[in-house]
Amino acid sequence: MSDAAIEIEGLSKVYQGGKQALDDVSFSVAEGSIFGLLGPNGAGKSTLINILAGLVNKTGGRASIWGFDIDAHPRNAKASIGIVNQEILFDPFFTPFETLEIQAGLYGVPRTRRRSLDLLRAVHLEDKADAYARTLSGGMKRRLMVAKAMVHSPPVLVLDEPTAGVDIELRQQLWAYVRELNAGGVTVVLTTHYLEEAEELCDRIAIINHGRLIANEPTRQLVGKATEKRVEVTVDRDVAAPPDASCFQKIELIGERVLAITYDKAKVNAGEVLAAVQAGGLGIVDVSTREADLEDVFLSLTRAERA
Known about the structure:
The chain has two domains: about 5-220, Rossmann fold (3-Layer(aba) Sandwich); about 230-290, 2-Layer Sandwich (Alpha-Beta Plaits). It has ten helices and 14 strands. The chain has helices at about 45-55, 75-80, 95-105, 115-120, 140-150, 170-185, 195-200, 220-225, 270-280, 295-305; strands at about 5-15, 20-30, 35-40, 60-65, 70, 80-85, 155-160, 185-190, 205-210, 210-220, 230-235, 250-255, 260-265, 285-290. It has a six-stranded mixed β-sheet, with helices on both faces. It has a four-stranded antiparallel β-sheet with strand order 2-1-4-5. Strands 12-13-11-14 form a four-stranded antiparallel β-sheet, with helices on one face. The chain is elongated, with a radius of gyration of 24 Å. The protein starts with a strand and ends with a helix.
């Protein structure tokens, strides 16, 4: 078996009518990692996940999960992965305990090896074990979906927008559980619109846009690609109109005495920017900067694709 939990080579998908959802996508997910798969709406992320789940047939390329090719060994591949979809999918008339028991039965897990109560405890739903699933809040339903994906103890867990509509406290509980699973050896693949989550959680991030892979790098290395930097400068007098200088990419007045300046740190440094402000006849009282983050890189890469 390869050291990769997931291997994807030249994966493509063309839907009926000619819509190309995936175009020659290749990457691997290291065993034991938390891997981020990001992209705008309609980029192809869900299509890729559904191919891995066996719900969508690929047009070309190959994919394997835990060393099992999804075409040659589909049963083993499906048994090696748990998927939490964006949509909440379970029968509202079953209780959470019954939902997990039924799912475990579908995967052929013997009764003596089922962990339904342990899973409910892990996602903080033990007290709701016998309530109808339809009575659960949105956040509780999300957590039940995570437990449902883990009934057969898969070594790979895919989370497709798992915190959509979940409040901050429940989101933190969910991520604490994901980190616990990862510490126990589970490989996690995450898609999210909360880029700060991906930046905090993921070891490596791939970005898909228009069905093509446009980035695949360790998170810190990817964030380091952002060259745009913002500095807020408080000056010693009211400003009617912000000054202009060639070293500014953008300047705006966000208060009577506060200038927000964006510049390219690959071409100029902060000292040159501040000198340009002073050259405009303004005294500097205070300076604050904002470091580039994953959102900056994401927007820069996807904008370049649209251009």
